Recover the amino acids of this structure.
């Protein structure tokens, strides 16, 4: 008899962060003496070079460490840049629970669904070049999509297509977790979703679905005649100067990187997913980046540096998701004023957002995706941090990007 995970994997829902009840400190990921000393030294250096000041820094340190321990997060990297107020960059916890190696601010991490901001940017560049139109039906580019003549590229980018999310299919979950090093092709993963009926008519509702972005990746490839990874590199990564950002071919992972830990396994036990193959996520979630690149990318996405003013305005036209304080545009999230995206892939979570009201940037990188009290740990961190630094713009909710 087939075993199934103890919780549904890669759920396509929205999650509003809740305050965690006190929990025991994470026994598997203690803060090491070395990590603590490094954090103190970094705090002193940060204050001397434009930091946020001792009082605010101390509040952030405590809030981050409280959430890290309560949510059982092995390691955390946080970057905050607030023009006119200062900055805060911190790494705490461990990158490897076996050796106790401290988390480091120069780490590469898998960014999961933040990949969507790159894929949709590439698509919107083609819109600006009049090579595609947002209201083109997907059937003009890809055959065999259920209801493809009514589903437009806009519907796909807005997560309002009604296509069943392949990553929620039980057979896909079993096949992936039975062999997480396996290589999947885009058409193979789409087939898991296409065997289901569509969940609603195009445009009627919001439903987060990785199927949408796989299709948009295929559109970019068909129109340009080049691999998506090459398009993203030559049109986006290289021009913006993102030297540590890439779409891998398979499970390759630049150093240094933390080990990633997930309980998305067939047994429900926590596993080291560092070298799992992210090919199944491709245009929806396979990319890798680092703190400095994500800092730069946050502003590029939110301000539309690579797009025309008209196209960026369409991108930022967000629609309700059904959860207060959270709306979604063309591959972009608005969480109470913070614009960008979050990401989750087995072993890693990220948040990369920009607050136009204060020209502030926040980046969070962690090495687990195991939920705590039903909430994604990166969302808990983002809520705690913004409750301190931008109380009028608290990051209350985020797309669950599994």
């Amino acid at each position: 008899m087939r075993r199934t995970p103890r919780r549904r994997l890669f759920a396509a829902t929205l999650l509003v962060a809740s305050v965690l009840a006190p929990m025991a400190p994470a026994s598997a990921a203690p803060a090491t003496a070395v990590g603590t000393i490094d954090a103190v030294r970094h705090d002193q250096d940060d204050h001397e070079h434009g930091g946020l000041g001792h009082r605010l820094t101390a509040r952030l340190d405590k809030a981050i460490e409280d959430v890290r321990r309560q949510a059982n997060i092995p390691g955390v990297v946080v970057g905050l840049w607030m023009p006119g107020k200062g900055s805060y960059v911190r790494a705490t916890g461990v990158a490897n629970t076996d050796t106790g190696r401290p988390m480091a601010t120069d780490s590469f991490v898998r960014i999961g669904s933040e990949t969507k901001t790159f894929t949709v940017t590439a698509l919107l560049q083609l819109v600006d070049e009049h090579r595609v139109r947002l209201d083109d039906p997907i059937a003009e580019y890809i055959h065999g999509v259920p209801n493809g003549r009514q589903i437009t590229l806009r519907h796909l980018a807005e997560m309002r297509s009604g296509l069943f999310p392949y990553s929620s299919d039980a057979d896909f979950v079993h096949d992936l977790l039975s062999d997480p090093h396996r290589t999947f092709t885009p058409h193979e993963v789409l087939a898991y979703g296409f065997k289901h009926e569509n969940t609603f008519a195009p445009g009627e509702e919001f439903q987060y679905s990785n199927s949408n972005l796989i299709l948009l990746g295929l559109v970019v490839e068909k129109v340009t005649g080049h691999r998506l990874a090459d398009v993203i590199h030559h049109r986006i990564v290289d021009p913006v100067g993102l030297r540590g950002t890439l779409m891998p071919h398979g499970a390759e992972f630049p150093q240094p990187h933390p080990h990633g830990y997930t309980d998305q396994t067939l047994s429900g036990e926590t596993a080291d997913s560092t070298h799992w193959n992210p090919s199944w996520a491709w245009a929806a979630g396979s990319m890798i980046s680092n703190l400095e690149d994500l800092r730069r990318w946050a502003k590029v996405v939110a301000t539309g540096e690579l797009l025309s003013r008209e196209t960026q305005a369409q991108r930022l036209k967000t629609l309700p998701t059904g959860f207060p304080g959270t709306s979604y545009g063309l591959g972009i999230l608005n969480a109470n004023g913070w614009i960008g995206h979050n990401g989750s892939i087995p072993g890693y979570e990220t948040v990369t957002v920009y607050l136009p009201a204060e020209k502030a940037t926040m980046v969070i990188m962690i090495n687990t995706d195991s939920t705590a009290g039903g909430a994604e740990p990166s969302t808990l961190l983002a809520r705690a941090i913004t409750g301190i630094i931008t109380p009028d713009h608290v990051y209350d909710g985020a797309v669950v990007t599994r």
Observations:
- The chain has a mean pLDDT of 89.
- Residues 14-399 form a domain with the Beta-lactamase fold (CATH 3.40.710.10).
